[in-house]
Queue: 2 jobs
Job 1
Amino acid sequence: MKTQFPDDFLWGGALAANQVEGAWREDGKGLSTSDMLPEGIFGQVVERRPGDFSIKDIAIDFYHRYPNDISLFREMGFTCLRVSVAWTRIFPQGDEREPNEAGLAWYDKLFDELARHGIQPLVTLSHYEMPWGLVQNYGGWGNRKLIAFFERYARTVFTRYRSKVKLWLTFNEINMSLHAPLTGVGLQGDCTKGDIYQAIHHQLVASGLAVKACHELIPDARIGNMLLGGLIYPLTCKPEDVFAALQENRRWQFFGDVQCRGHYPGYIKRDFREQGIELQTEPADFDALRHTVDFISFSYYMSGCATADVSQAEKLRGNILDMVPNPHLESSEWGWQIDPIGLRTLLNTLWDRYQKPLFIVENGLGAQDKPDADGQINDDYRIRYINDHLVQVWEAINDGVEVMGYTYWGPIDLISASKAEVAKRYGFIYVDLNQDGSGTLKRSRKKSFYWYRDVINSRGATLKR
Ligand code: BG6
């Protein structure tokens, strides 16, 4: 068997605007949901006042330091960088008729810099943020008007960057709205499951319209969806547990089913019926849903279990999903259970279900990196984590799964999404920054930097199998 990955496999890293850019009020940027959650997705909404401080306001200052960071990515051999556009840089309130030219110009510079280094951008339209104006004035995605606002935003950026960006994603981890409705669909306060699915319906329609617009405006581009790949195993082989796992998996597969097949699956209709959920829809919505994605992208950090036995369901909070812990797996410092084989299972599952190309756009290990006496960070734990996951990607490719690429999450230390922590570091590149904002923001290479460079240069031949 060949040990190398295919020639056209894309290698790189993944970032999100609100976790790296900083410059939160520069060049006319509006307030986003992320700005209003200074302690992360699972924190409280905080009224932002002049002079107050959130670590996300500066983040790692990618807004000003991107040329240097991109040259470091190039040094590792990246052929692809996943970034997101901050919607609020383009439409600060979300409902303007005309876009903010300064925001558009900044992403032009970013994409030009990537092109100079031969790095292909993979761009997420909405990564865990939306204009706060749309939450305050319209009630977020609960309001059907959001579809048109999002379509205008998507068409604006497709038109502007049509010659620069050929790979697009619609909504980051679209299934996470079920777990964090404010970040996912801009719903505040108490909301019912029906409210959330109504907002999700609007977002799925908007996603379909974005796919349509992308195909019209950039015929040689490809556009994918983005799922949080929450792979669930049955806790035991009891038929009840096996069925519970099937149902849990459908909670995220539902999004893939709609975005890849173009219609609502029977199991969700039953669920809606039994729970008295009646979605408000219009006939045109179903035409929009028929514009299915070209490829499927997903994040994968961990797997979990499901059981029908509620008393056993001692829950472990992993990022966003509550999952029953797997007694056979070890965990990261943040309690995320590490399961490289699960990535092969997930790739095969998605391929068998949809037969669309797959792109792993997030996978990574958050850890507290401690410099040694010489100031070096020997992050062997991170190397082991990535090595073991990439070996499973290679296995899946040999199983016949079509995999477009791998963008490691957090190639440079950034602000974590769930709790806005600096201490949870993912990077190959260390950033001198503390939670209170102190630090020089200087970048330095960790041991994993050189290791990943060698993996990319050898197209995976240096992986330990
Ligand atoms: C994914 C998100 O859920 O997980 C990223 O798309 C996020 O934005 C990543 O950063 C890791 O989560 P955390 O909370 O460790 O940053």
Job 2
Amino acid sequence: QARRDSQKRDGKPTVRAKTLKQTGGKVVISEPISVKELSSSTGIKANEILRKLDLSGVVLTVNDNIETSQAMELMMEWGIELEVTEQQSAEATIVESFTSREMVNEQSRSPVVTILGHVDHGKTSLLDKIRKANVADGEAGGITQATSAFCVPVKAGETERVVTFIDTPGHEAFTEMRSRGAKVTDIVVLVVAADDGVMPQTIESINHAKSAGVPIVVALNKIDKEQATDDNIQRILGQLAEHDLNSVDWGGTTEVIRTSAIKEIGIQDLLDILDYQAELLELKADFGGAAEGSVIEAHIAEGRGPVANILVQQGKLKKGDFIVAGKGYGRIRALIDENGKQVNEAGPSTPLAILGLNAVPEAGDKIYVVKSLKEAESSAKERTQQA
Ligand code: GTP
Ligand code: MG
């Protein structure tokens, strides 16, 4: 008899309310609690709930929300214990869906290298040389650099590996990103001028790299200068050792590469070491599925609206995707690569400029692809309200 009943009900559990009433069970429900939801999850008829509420002077309809404490109290009359879970913010829901990401197409990815160091020690000059050394002659001058990061194919031995260099983060941007918990870099190149040595911002940079837990490669730059004497170099190696960067020269593990951005010395050595370090890290990412990344820098460009320079970290970012980035959201109108060229999609470790956000996000904000504009909007609005 019972079996025929349950079959008629299409396999659905039979009269759950009765079981709960009889046994006095526990019901998990999330805020906000509407009378309707309370009824469906406990099996107690909405009319009964409303009548009880009415008796205590609370007049509601089925679709109204009932206060959490009241709902808990009320359910005790039926011997039901409510376990109420707080309403999750739209942002938290999105973040959670990415934290529990199911890999679609996991592959090795390019390392992301950030150059840090004291003012004027030669960070930009070194990057320029790294970039030019690897861009075909004649092309170099003509390239419009659209983003603050770029990819360089690095040849070390037989393998060729693309390395992504991030140009913007002077240590301030890096601090900002760190404070937001954004981890964009895999390796730090610490530039120290051989005629100057370890300076306040060098120490700050070391601390940033340490707290990010990423390996540090030192570029002892301006080695061409006459002040770059052996004595001076040994003194600097001592300063580095004081900050736990014991050089390979001194029997430690920190690679200290002598470079000159001006005379183009040691650039390939530096790239070889980066290639080697990257190999050790065995970096992997999902090349399929919804994309996520981090904002490196963002601003308003005349006639273009908000432009965000970002780094894709997981998944495939596509033109037309709905995205949320901090307090900005929208639909990607254009993806622009480091050469100023529009592309339709991009995978992990690719730096890009994106157009289509309604507001300028902040450096270090995570960027997520979501299913709908509505989802993106509610998350971005939460951020705006918090601010
Ligand atoms: P900020 O971005 O201001 O922190 O400076 P930076 O670290 O990017 O230094 P930048 O590359 O702008 O170089 C500062 C100065 O040092 C410039 O005048 C460069 O020409 C000079 N310079 C950089 N590298 C070398 C080098 O290897 N040898 C010599 N002699 N001069 C260098
Ligand atoms: Mg610079």
